[in-house]
What we know:
Rossmann fold, 5-stranded mixed sheet, disordered N terminus, globular, 18% helix, alpha/beta, 430 residues, 23 strands
Amino acid sequence: MKKLIILVLSFSFLFFACSDLDSDGFMYNSHSIENVRIKPSRLGNKKPKNIPVLSKTELIIQYVPGTTAIQKSNLRGLYNVISYEVCASCMDFNLEKWNFGPDVDLESKLGSIMPEEEDGGIEGIINVDKEFYFEYETENYTLTGGTGNTSYTSKMVSPSTNSITIAVLDTGIDVNYSVFDRNRFLHNGSTDPINEIVSGWDFVNDDDNCYDDYLDLHGTAVSSIISNSLDQLNIPHNILPVKVSNSEGKSSRFEVICGTAFAIERADIINMSLGWYDYDGSGIDFADDILQTIIASHMHDVLVVTSAGNWANNNDGWGSDFKHYPSNYDLKNVTAIAASNANSTDIAYFSNYGQSTVDFFAKGQEIPFDSTYINGTSFSAPVVSAVAAKYLYNSGMSLSPSGIISKLNLGGDYLYTSKPTFYSKLIELD
């Protein structure tokens, strides 16, 4: 009997990190990490920049486990793949990115792979996601990103693997930056099955050097909020840096998927201060894609904390508003965070919200960072990641992600606002 080979294909996408790769953070009175400066008027009819722009040449493939190298090679030949990239560093050899070259008619290619009249595609392909790109606008800025090595020395890497581990999918980390209060806070990769790993991994350059060379030091800011907050709470912890965005704040869907696959096997909590919008009926099904499948595979043991975005948008997607991902994933281990204002008395004017799709608030306005102030849901999410880590640690590492979310709800204070979230609770450090 012929063996059925099942594939999941998804269009690779590049997206450009705007603060949190999705315009979820910006600098106060200086540089807008967001694609555009958010105003109380919600920019009139202007659209956000982090909107998917479809690619014409690439697909991301997820094979069914057990597909052999010969079978994969035959499938690449069958579909005339020009080149391909594997996700070896995340140890998931069922993920590949296929490139068909500039002359391909990708819609026809999709039609041949996933015929609409059949239940499933040729060779049992079960899903196709479209590749897309999005970008942000950059202005002058006063800080300088990392320019060299992350400096993984014994002073930076934790001697123990027993602490709680928080992965930060972002622009990397500059561990020598003055915002870090202590040494030895990085995840120890000494027992990792990938021999080269000292701590985290750079999925942009495919090496272990996760330095933050992005001008706005976005990943450094997010990591410092988590680490310094947990120091304040006396919670033993490690930061696992996962670099998915380059020095210009640009990334690809494949890098994010590989980074997530890497982090979810090593972390207790993942902070994803990034995102994109399903703008104006793009026709892309974000609610059932490879990234969501990977996150759902650890529904009961890894919490994913996401930023809700900064476009004063109702993420429920009503009327003129749009859905925002990955914060809109309807999963029990995903929580979406909006920003409260500087006084934590109301929602921040720029913050997205949503009674069904956003969960909590945390302060996201006028956050001190180095010589300036930063604003955005990018910097609200790591506050919640830190408090979630506290609850998990204090439970003896026994709480499930849904249990942690319940604790967040019970421990939060109700925030009275005209733009509510599901719980409408403000999460703060004790």
